[in-house]
C-alpha cells in the first residue's frame, strides 16, 4: 500500500524525465525509441534559454528579498513583545494561506494600474511576498531553538547590537536562513499562476512558456523544459539538505 | 502581625510616587527589535496588503459601489454550480489525500531513521517539483493512448482517456497535494512519544487498542489539519483544473481567471476571489483553533 | 573608600509586580559579595539590572564612580558568567574567549587569550568547541571569557548550579583562588548557603525583592537580623515569642515553652513586642537532669524522632508545652536519646536571640 502510494508520488515526475528522451516528435508513453533530439531543440531554441535565464534572475531577486524581509521579521517577532505583535505575524505569515489565484488577481490589478505588467523586477517583488512566510517559518523555528542568553552574553561582553547579530545570532541561523532562501527561490522559479496574469508579452518565464506549450502544442520539447525545472528544484533541495546537515553539525557542536 | 521593620518583607501596597520614573530612556534593544519587525511589516504592507486590499475593495466598487456582484454570484446558477464543483472536488481530494497520506506518514515515522530519510525523499522530491510539470505528466499519463488509459483499458473497455474529466482533476490534484498531509502528519507522529503506546500495552491494551486509544487521538489534530490544508489549497487551485479538467470541471479559480482575462468582468472576479479568500482564511483559522485546543500535536 | 559597584534606591517592577524593592548596596573594590536567596527573591534580577540586560524602574546604579543606569550592556564593562554559560556554540574555546577583546578591538588579543586560558587551565582545549567539553570545562570557558577583558566587576549567576556535587566543591575553591589572583570585584548569585558562606567576603540575603541583611558570613550566621535570615542560613529553632520585660535581660514568653526565657539584651533586635525566639541547635545542651545554675534557660522535652545524617544525628524533640525543638549530636554520642525518653535542654541567654518576624 505504502509502496503504491510512494510510486504514485514519484512515477509522474520520472515519466516527464523519461519522456524528454523520446525518439519521436509527439508525446508517447511508453517511449518509441530514445534520442536527445529534444534536448538539441531546447538548447538550440533561444526562447527556451531566455525563459530559463529570466526565471533564474527573477527567482534570485525574489529569494534575496524574501530572505532579508523574512529573516529580519523572524528576529523582530522573536524579540519584540509590544503591541501589534500578533497582527504583524498574521500579515507576514498570511501569504501562505491566501490562494495564489487571489494574489495573481491582486498583482494583475496593481501592475495594470501602475503600468508594471511585464516588468521582471515587479514580478520578482510579487514572488518575494510568496517566499516570506517560508523564510519566516524556517528562521522562527531556528530562533526558538536558539538560547536567547547568547545574545545577552555577546552584549555584556562588549559587542554592540550589529556585531551581536552578525557574529552570534546569524551564524546560528545560517542553515535555517539558507533553507528558507532556497525554498523561496524554488517557489519563484517555477511559479505558474501569477505569471499568467502579469507577464504581459515581455516577461516569458520558463513556467509561462511551459504553460503556453502545454496549452497549445504539447511537444516533447516541453518535457525537456520540465526536466530542467525538476533538476533545478531537486538539485536545490539536495543542496539545502546537504548544507543544512553541514551547517547544522557546526551549529550543534 | 503588624511588624514594621528596617528590612520589610514584601513591599505591601507598593511604594509611593517615586516608583516609576517617567520618560526614562529605555535600553536600545527593544527599540531595535521594533525596527527589525517594523521594516518588514512596512514592506509587506506596501507590496502585499495594499494590492490584496485594493482587490477586495474592487469587489464592492466595480462596476458600481454596492453588493451587486455578491448578489449576482449567489444567484447565478452557473456560478453556484462552479462553487459546488470546486468544493466537491476539493473535498474529494482532501479525503483521498488523508486516506493515502496517513499510512505513508505512519510508515515513515516508524521506519528506522536511515530508511525513513531515503523514503522521505520520494515524498519531498515531487513536493519540490513544479506543479505545472506534474500536471503535464498527468496529461501524458491520462490522455488517449496514455499509460494509465491503456492499463485501465480492460476495465473501461474503451481507449478514451480520463483526461479532461473530474477523475483526472482529482487524481492529479491528489498527486500534487499529497505531500502536504504526509509531511504534516509525519511531523506530528514523530513527536508522539513511542513510550506512550508501550505504556498503554503494559497497562493491558492490545496493539490495536493501544493504537486506537493512544496513537490515533494524538495524531488526530494533525491529520485533520493536513486534510483541511489540502482542502483549502484545492479550493483555490488553478493550474491543474485548467490543464487536466474540461469545461465542466471549471473551478472558482478557473472562472476568476476567465473573468479577468476573457470577459473583463473584474468586479465579479474580485468578488469570487474575496469569497475564496474568506473561505481560505476562515478554514486556516479553524485549523489553528482545532490544533491549539487539542494541544500537543500541532501541524 | 568609594564603592566599585553601588545600587542607590533601585526598584525593578515587572508591570505591577515588584521584583527588586528599594535596593541600596555598595560593593567594595576586590570584594566578593554574594546575593543569597530562594528562587524568586530578586537576586538574579538584581544581577541582570546591573549587567544592563534589564532596565531599572527607578534608582541609580554606579560602577567605578560612573553612573551606568541607562547605559547599554556592551558599554558597561561588566563580565557576566551566565547560569547556563551561554557559550557561543559555533566558536572554539579560544574564539569564545577572544570575543570580548575582538568586540573592543583590543590590542594583543592573542597574548591575553593565552593568559586567560592558562589561568583557567584550558590551554589544551583551546581548539575544542563547547559541545565537546564537560560541564566543568564549559564553566571555566565562561569564566575565562568573562574576565579576559578586565571588567570593572565580575558577575556570576549560579555558576556552579549545573555541576554535580563533587565538581561543585572543587570549582568553588578554584573560583575563589582565581578571584584572589585576578583581584576582581565579584558579585555572585546563589541559592546555596554553603557556597555563600564558604566563598564570600560579605553575603546579602534577599527575600521577596528586599535585601534583608548584608554582612560577613560569620555575622550573618551568628547575628541574623530577622527570622527569615535565621531560617534561610543553617539550621535554626525558631519559635513565636512575646517580650514580657526588657531590663538587664529580655524576658520572653515563648509559645509552647513553660516559664520565662531569658535573652541577652544585645540579642534582642526585635522591633515589636512579638517576634520569634531563635537559637542554633548546636548551642543547645542536652542533659538527663535539670542543670543547676539559675539564669540558664532550661526546657524539659521528649525525643520524638531521630534522623541519621552520617557523621551527625539530628534529634527532634518536643517540649512539654508543645514547642518543637531539635539538637544535633555527633553520631554515637546520643545513645541515651531514644525515642520517647525525656531530657532537659538548656542554653545561656547569650545563645538565644529575639528577632523580628519576617516570613
Notes on the structure:
The complex is a heterotrimer of chains A (253), B (299) and C (359). Chain A has helices spanning 2-19, 37-44, 46-79, 85-93, 100-114, 120-145, 149-156, 161-189, 194-198, 206-216, 221-252. Chain A has 253 residues and is mainly alpha-helical. Chain B has one domain (77-294): MetI-like fold, CATH 1.10.3720.10. Chain B has helices spanning 28-61, 68-75, 77-110, 113-128, 131-142, 147-156, 166-177, 179-191, 194-202, 207-235, 239-244, 252-261, 266-294. With 359 residues, chain C is of the alpha+beta class. Chain C has helices at 43-51, 93-103, 109-119, 135-147, 165-182, 193-199, 217-222, 227-232; strands at 5-14, 17-27, 32-36, 58-63, 66-67, 78-81, 153-157, 186-190, 202-207, 210-215, 237-246, 249-254, 261-264, 274-279, 285-287, 297-309, 312-319, 324-330, 342-347, 353-355. In chain C, the strands form 4 sheets. Chain C has a 6-stranded mixed beta sheet, with helices on both faces. Chain C has a 5-stranded antiparallel beta sheet with strand order 13-12-11-14-20. A 5-stranded antiparallel beta sheet of chain C has the order 15-19-16-17-18, with no helix packed on it. Chains A and B meet through helix 1, helix 3, helix 4, helix 5 and helix 6 of A and helix 1, helix 3, helix 4, helix 5 and helix 10 of B.
Amino acid at each position: 500500500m505504502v509502496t503504491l502510494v510512494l510510486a504514485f508520488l514519484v512515477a509522474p515526475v520520472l515519466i516527464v524525465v523519461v519522456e524528454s528522451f523520446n525518439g519521436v516528435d509527439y508525446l508517447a508513453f511508453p517511449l518509441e525509441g530514445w534520442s536527445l533530439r529534444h534536448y538539441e531543440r531546447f538548447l538550440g531554441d533561444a526562447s527556451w534559454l531566455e525563459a530559463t535565464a529570466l526565471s533564474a534572475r527573477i527567482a534570485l531577486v525574489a529569494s534575496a528579498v524574501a530572505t532579508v524581509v523574512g529573516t529580519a521579521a523572524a528576529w523582530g517577532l522573536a524579540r519584540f513583545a509590544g503591541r501589534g505583535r500578533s497582527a504583524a505575524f498574521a500579515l507576514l505569515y498570511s501569504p501562505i494561506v491566501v490562494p495564489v489565484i487571489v494574489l495573481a488577481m491582486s498583482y494583475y490589478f496593481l501592475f495594470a494600474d501602475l503600468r508594471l505588467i511585464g516588468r521582471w523586477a515587479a514580478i520578482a517583488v510579487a514572488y518575494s511576498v510568496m517566499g516570506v512566510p517560508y523564510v519566516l517559518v524556517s528562521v522562527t523555528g531556528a530562533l526558538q531553538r536558539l538560547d536567547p542568553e547568547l545574545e545577552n552574553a555577546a552584549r555584556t561582553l562588549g559587542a554592540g547590537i550589529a556585531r551581536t547579530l552578525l557574529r552570534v545570532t546569524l551564524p546560528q541561523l545560517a542553515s535555517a536562513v539558507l533553507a528558507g532562501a532556497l525554498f523561496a527561490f524554488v517557489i519563484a522559479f517555477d511559479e505558474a499562476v501569477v505569471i499568467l496574469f502579469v507577464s504581459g508579452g515581455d516577461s516569458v518565464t520558463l513556467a509561462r512558456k511551459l504553460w503556453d506549450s502545454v496549452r497549445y502544442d504539447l511537444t516533447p520539447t516541453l518535457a525537456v523544459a520540465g526536466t530542467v525545472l525538476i533538476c533545478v528544484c531537486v538539485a536545490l533541495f539536495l543542496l539545502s539538505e546537504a548544507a543544512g546537515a553541514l551547517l547544522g553539525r557546526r551549529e550543534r557542536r | 502581625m503588624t511588624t514594621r521593620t528596617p528590612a520589610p518583607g514584601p513591599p505591601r501596597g507598593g511604594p509611593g510616587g517615586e516608583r516609576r520614573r517617567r520618560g526614562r530612556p529605555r535600553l536600545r534593544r527593544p527599540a531595535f527589535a521594533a525596527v527589525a519587525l517594523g521594516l518588514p511589516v512596512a514592506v509587506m504592507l506596501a507590496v502585499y496588503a495594499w494590492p490584496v486590499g485594493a482587490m477586495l475593495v474592487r469587489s464592492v466598487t466595480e462596476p458600481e459601489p454596492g453588493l451587486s456582484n455578491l448578489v449576482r454570484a449567489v444567484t447565478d446558477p452557473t456560478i453556484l454550480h462552479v462553487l459546488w464543483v470546486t468544493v466537491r472536488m476539493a473535498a474529494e481530494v482532501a479525503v483521498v489525500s488523508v486516506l493515502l497520506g496517513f499510512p505513508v506518514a505512519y510508515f515513515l515515522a516508524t521506519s528506522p531513521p536511515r530508511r525513513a530519510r531515503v523514503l522521505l525523499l520520494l515524498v519531498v522530491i515531487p513536493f519540490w517539483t513544479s506543479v505545472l510539470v506534474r500536471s503535464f505528466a498527468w496529461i501524458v499519463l491520462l490522455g488517449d493512448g496514455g499509460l494509465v488509459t491503456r492499463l485501465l483499458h480492460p476495465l473501461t473497455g474503451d481507449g478514451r482517456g480520463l483526461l479532461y474529466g473530474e477523475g483526472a482533476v482529482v487524481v492529479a490534484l491528489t498527486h500534487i497535494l499529497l505531500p502536504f498531509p504526509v509531511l504534516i502528519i509525519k511531523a506530528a507522529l514523530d513527536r508522539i512519544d513511542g513510550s506512550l503506546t508501550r505504556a498503554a500495552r503494559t497497562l493491558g491494551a492490545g496493539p490495536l487498542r493501544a493504537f486506537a486509544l493512544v496513537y490515533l487521538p494524538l495524531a488526530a489534530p494533525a491529520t485533520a489539519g493536513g486534510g483541511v490544508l489540502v482542502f483549502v489549497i484545492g479550493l483555490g487551485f488553478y493550474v491543474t483544473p485548467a490543464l487536466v479538467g474540461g469545461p465542466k470541471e471549471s473551478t472558482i479559480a478557473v472562472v476568476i481567471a476567465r473573468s479577468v482575462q476573457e470577459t473583463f468582468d473584474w468586479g465579479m472576479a474580485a468578488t469570487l476571489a474575496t469569497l475564496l479568500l474568506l473561505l481560505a482564511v476562515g478554514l486556516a483559522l479553524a485549523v489553528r483553533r482545532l490544533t491549539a485546543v487539542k494541544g500537543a500535536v500541532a501541524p | 573608600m568609594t564603592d566599585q559597584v553601588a545600587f542607590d534606591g533601585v526598584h525593578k517592577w515587572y508591570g505591577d509586580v515588584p521584583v527588586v524593592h528599594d535596593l541600596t548596596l555598595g560593593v567594595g573594590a576586590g570584594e566578593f559579595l554574594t546575593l543569597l536567596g530562594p528562587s524568586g527573591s530578586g537576586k538574579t534580577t538584581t544581577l541582570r539590572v546591573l549587567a544592563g540586560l534589564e532596565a531599572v524602574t527607578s534608582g541609580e546604579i554606579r560602577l567605578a564612580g560612573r553612573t551606568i543606569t541607562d547605559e547599554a550592556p556592551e558599554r558597561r564593562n561588566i563580565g557576566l558568567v551566565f547560569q547556563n554559560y551561554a557559550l557561543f556554540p559555533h566558536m572554539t574555546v579560544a574564539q569564545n574567549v577572544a570575543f570580548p577583546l575582538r568586540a573592543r578591538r583590543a590590542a594583543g588579543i592573542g597574548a591575553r587569550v593565552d593568559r586567560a586560558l592558562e589561568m583557567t587551565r584550558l590551554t589544551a582545549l583551546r581548539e575544542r568547541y563547547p559541545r565537546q567539553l564537560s560541564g566543568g570545562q564549559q564553566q571555566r570557558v565562561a569564566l575565562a571569557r568573562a574576565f579576559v577583558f578586565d571588567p570593572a566587576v565580575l558577575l556570576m549567576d549560579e555558576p556552579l548550579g549545573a555541576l554535580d556535587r563533587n565538581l561543585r566543591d572543587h570549582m568553588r575553591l578554584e573560583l575563589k583562588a582565581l578571584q584572589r589572583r585576578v583581584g576582581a570585584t565579584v558579585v555572585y548569585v546563589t541559592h546555596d548557603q554553603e557556597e555563600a558562606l564558604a566563598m564570600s567576603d560579605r553575603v546579602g540575603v534577599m527575600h521577596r525583592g528586599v535585601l534583608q541583611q548584608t554582612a560577613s558570613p560569620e555575622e550573618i550566621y551568628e547575628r541574623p537580623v530577622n527570622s527569615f535570615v535565621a531560617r534561610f542560613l543553617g539550621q535554626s529553632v525558631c519559635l513565636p515569642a512575646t517580650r514580657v520585660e526588657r531590663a538587664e535581660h529580655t524576658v520572653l514568653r515563648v509559645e509552647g515553652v513553660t516559664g520565662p526565657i531569658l535573652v541577652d539584651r544585645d540579642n534582642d533586635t526585635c522591633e515589636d513586642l512579638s517576634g520569634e525566639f531563635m537559637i542554633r541547635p548546636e548551642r543547645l545542651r542536652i542533659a538527663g537532669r535539670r542543670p543547676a545554675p539559675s539564669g540558664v534557660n532550661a526546657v524539659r522535652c521528649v525525643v520524638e524522632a531521630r534522623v541519621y545524617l552520617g557523621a551527625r544525628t539530628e534529634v527532634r524533640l518536643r517540649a512539654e508545652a508543645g514547642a518543637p525543638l531539635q539538637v544535633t549530636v555527633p553520631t554515637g554520642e546520643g545513645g541515651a536519646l531514644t525515642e520517647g525518653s525525656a531530657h532537659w535542654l538548656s542554653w545561656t541567654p547569650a545563645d538565644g536571640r529575639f528577632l523580628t518576624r519576617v516570613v
